[in-house]
């Protein structure tokens, strides 16, 4: 191949005829194409475009808080597969729904409530076909007109959603501070009341965060995590390792300041053991952290030991559940 | 002037803290190369610039995630690559309805090339070092021409005038440089992305 044609093409000066010549040459063999790709990569990495307009960093630097943008619903239609994770949201108090929803949907009085007790992961299929996996200690509520296209629900806790595609009816997950709106696809939300903060992590696709008035606050791109604390005025957005935020689906259970006595009850169920708490006050100690449910019991106890005053002794018994003393 | 001349050492702690002066330095030393990179794949100049600028915005937003000075440039190239690819993939849908086969082929080829780039931190450091070394190995005249053409925004005509050589000679020196660089860099710039 005449390199002057390649050069002209790289410099953006090739005529259509020369371009055709080049592409014909590329088609001739895999090694031709390989050669061109390598050249092009060197060209791209050694490429400099003079900053003739003199654009400076202060010209493009974003303002600290992301400005609220109002996008049309159609804008979201183009977006596909979405995984989202919202971590922690503020206390819910007595009212479960943001003002918007109350105004728009007075029928919320007839509600369905699904609760996944502490220590359990619960799978649910919603009336529209959406699959929801609720993490430990999570509650979702939706009105019974959900079936008729009002795809809104309220979440307290953490859940993974695989949303049934329906471009006409947006799927909205509300919580105290922020909401999320999608049209189909999968995302994960965590919104525990005690944190007074809210985090959303997007793994794939695109997602819109809504304020309590239902207006779009910002959009996330894959790999981004949005964090909003009640005490702050801005939403912090950054790249994260998203796998970390979906690991609970793989059998991880997160305890958020739960009493050891309650945790003991769950462990008794999971492992078919009997736990006797001997030490005064130990049952009232609180544990905050994540444990892997399908690990051997001694590993779980070792993890609990790290942040509590727990000591234990396991006594295997024949024909009866093993006995474990917590002391 | 060399490939890595602008690889200035910066105070990473200040960078992470969001120091304006440090970030400005990073911007000034990388802006032209990131725009240049994007323009190699996106023919729409404004769009290419926009993508490059977004790369800096992303770097700013995620500055705390950057752990080495070398990671900064790798991050910028990665962000530029990702957004160029998103743009091209989106354009592809439009192109389905277009008659311009040539344009379509160009975009698909550019997409393929972008996909084969790897900008992992360590690999990028190695790549940059190897490009620098390869440039130094070029014969003197050849290197002069290439550096003027690639890093000093000079047109072939200008280079010919400056160095007092024929236009043809400028072209042949660039060709020569490309051939030598390709030989030197073949192993670090694979044309196929090996998944395993």
Task: Summarize this structure as a short list of keywords or feature phrases.
heterodimer; A: 327 residues; alpha+beta; Jelly Rolls; Phage tail protein beta-alpha-beta fold; 3 domains; ten-stranded mixed β-sheet; four-stranded antiparallel β-sheet; elongated; B: 196 residues; mainly alpha; Arc Repressor Mutant, subunit A; 2 domains; globular
Q: Helix and strand layout, with pairings?
A:
The complex is a heterodimer of chains A (327) and B (196).
Chain A: H1 3-10, H2 16-28, H3 30-45, H4 57-60, H5 73-77, E1 83-87, H6 99-104, E2 111-116, E3 122-125, E4 131-134, E5 138-143, E6 152-163, E7 171-174, E8 179-182, E9 185-191, E10 197-204, E11 207-210, E12 216-220, E13 224-229, E14 235-239, E15 252-259, H7 260-271, E16 273-277, E17 286-292, H8 297-307, E18 312-315, E19 322-326
Parallel strand pairs in A: 6-7, 16-19
Antiparallel strand pairs in A: 1-10, 2-5, 3-4, 4-6, 5-6, 6-9, 7-8, 8-11, 10-13, 11-12, 13-14, 15-17, 18-19
Helix pairs in contact in A: 2-3
Chain B: H1 12-17, H2 20-39, H3 45-61, H4 69-95, H5 101-116, H6 121-137, H7 140-151, H8 156-163, H9 167-185
Helix pairs in contact in B: 2-3, 2-4, 3-4, 4-5, 4-6, 6-9, 7-9, 8-9
Note down, in words, how this protein is organized.
The complex is a heterodimer of chains A (327) and B (196). Chain A is an alpha+beta fold. Chain A folds into 3 domains: 3-45, no CATH class; 73-247, Jelly Rolls (Sandwich), CATH 2.60.120.1440; 252-326, Phage tail protein beta-alpha-beta fold. Helix content of chain A is 23%, strand content 33%. Chain A has helices spanning 3-10, 16-28, 30-45, 57-60, 73-77, 99-104, 260-271, 297-307; strands at 83-87, 111-116, 122-125, 131-134, 138-143, 152-163, 171-174, 179-182, 185-191, 197-204, 207-210, 216-220, 224-229, 235-239, 252-259, 273-277, 286-292, 312-315, 322-326. In chain A, a hairpin with an 8-residue loop joins β5 and β6. In chain A, α2 (16-28) packs across α3 (30-45). Chain A is elongated and about 85 Å long. Mean pLDDT of chain A is 75; it is low at 65-108. Chain B has 196 residues and is mostly helical. Chain B has 2 domains: 12-129, no CATH class; 138-185, Orthogonal Bundle (Arc Repressor Mutant, subunit A). Helix content of chain B is 72%, strand content 0%. Chain B has helices at 12-17, 20-39, 45-61, 69-95, 101-116, 121-137, 140-151, 156-163, 167-185. The longest helix of chain B has 27 residues, at 69-95. In chain B, 34% of the residues are buried. Classes of the chains: A alpha+beta (327), B mainly alpha (196). The interface between A and B is large, with 39 and 51 residues.
